[in-house]
Specification:
Elements (H helix, E strand, L loop, with lengths): L1 H15 L10 H13 L10 H20 L23 H10 L3 H13 L3 H5 L6 E3 L5 E6 L5 E6 L1 H13 L25 H15 L7 H14 L4 H8 L5 H6 L5 H14 L2
Antiparallel strand pairs: 1-2, 2-3
Helix pairs in contact: 1-3, 4-5, 4-8, 5-7, 5-9
């Protein structure tokens, strides 16, 4: 993909600008490249979106970084255009309760509640195994999650959720798989196979219809809802980033900037009143 962008977008621009060597790609030239992408019409006569330009420029930055590593003379670095702030929809806790109630089986209810109360990703939920519920000597329970890059982290579990997981494990269909969640029907080989990503993606959609929720509901919406609720209740953003499996605060700042002044007021009042 990156190679095609270079061939279809960046190299033709260099040709039009009479840029024949990497030494000519100084900061002024690369700023002009970004500006041209933002201002010139695309294939269909409409300006490229800032998200598209951002993607193009990132690819060029990676290419120029490779050129520098190979000893080429490249003095400039194209600036990434500022992206418009995304508006993130979330579900209220009452809507999540309705969603869980509408789920037809305890397995499906438990999946909804786990996604909503831990903020884990769909792929992480698919990878959960029977032994991934860890209880310490102080009876605090955690979910051991294998996140992106195979980085493991511990996500807190409420006592009520631990009890539900224990009941589900005892009633779970016998399977050669050690995965926590398995399909509700046997496969052609007569086995209960691990529940797949696509299988989990379909669950909230049908549950939302039964719950009378007209918005598009998907598992990542539950992750957003968890993070938003945690911030509104005063969780430290650094702790939240760790729970979500983010390596830094950038995603927290970008995605959850929809918290409003009332949220900020409530957080400050909670802090001040708790000091007394």
């Amino acid at each position: 993909m990156q190679g095609s962008l270079l061939v279809d977008v960046f190299l033709p621009w260099c040709a039009r600008a009479n840029m024949t060597t990497t030494a000519q790609l100084d900061q002024r030239a690369l700023d002009r490249f970004t500006g041209d992408l933002l201002n010139e019409p695309g294939k269909h006569g409409k300006p490229l979106s800032r998200f598209t330009v951002h993607h193009y420029v990132r690819s060029v930055r990676q290419f120029l970084a490779w050129c520098r590593a190979e000893g080429e003379d490249v003095s400039g670095k194209p600036h990434l255009p500022r992206l418009p702030q995304r508006v993130v929809e979330v579900l209220s806790r009452e809507e999540i309760d309705r969603l869980e109630t509408a789920a037809p089986t305890e397995r499906n209810k438990l999946i909804i509640r786990l996604l909503a109360d831990t903020g884990i990703r769909v792929g992480e939920l698919c990878g959960l195994e029977m032994e991934d519920i860890i209880t310490g000597e102080d009876r605090r329970a955690f979910l051991k999650v294998a996140g992106k890059g195979s980085k493991e982290r511990l996500v807190p579990l409420s006592p009520s959720l631990v009890r539900r997981i224990d009941r589900y494990r005892r009633a779970r269909p016998e399977s050669h798989s050690n995965h926590l969640f398995v399909a509700s029907r046997r496969n052609p080989q007569g086995e209960y196979a691990p529940l797949t990503r696509s299988g989990i993606l379909q669950l909230p959609r049908s549950d939302a219809d039964r719950a009378g929720i007209t918005r598009r509901v998907h598992p990542h919406l539950l992750r957003h809802s968890f993070a938003t609720e945690a911030l509104r209740r005063g969780m430290n953003p650094v702790q939240l980033a760790q729970l979500l499996g983010h390596s830094g605060l950038r995603m927290i700042a970008q995605v959850y900037a929809h918290l409003n002044a009332v949220d900020g007021y409530d957080a400050v009042m909670k802090m001040l009143t708790s000091e007394r």
